[in-house]
Specification:
single chain; mainly alpha; 3 helices; 0% strand; rod-shaped; DUF2164; DUF2164 domain-containing protein
Length: 81
């Protein structure tokens, strides 16, 4: 699997590359071609993607744990003595 297929669809990659080009041109006066901008986006995705993904999973796990505790409490309240 190519790295661009792992994180982004081709339209997403193109859009993000365009945004990177605009940002670098506007904020840093750096002109970057489309191919180079896509390569930069893929590099950032490869380096940061796993950390962001793992953080999102941890956040989802925490939210699910909280919800499960709430459901467990609700079930205990429904028990009859």
């Amino acid at each position: 699997m190519k790295s661009d297929e792992r994180y982004l669809t081709q339209p997403q990659l193109a859009e993000l590359a365009s945004q990177v080009q605009q940002y670098l041109a506007g904020e840093h006066e750096v002109e970057l071609g489309g191919f180079d901008a896509q390569a930069l986006v893929l590099l950032v995705a490869d380096r940061l993607g796993p950390a962001i993904y793992n953080k999102a999973l941890a956040d989802a796990r925490s939210a699910l744990d909280t919800r499960m505790e709430s459901l467990q409490s609700a079930l205990w309240e429904l028990e009859r003595s």
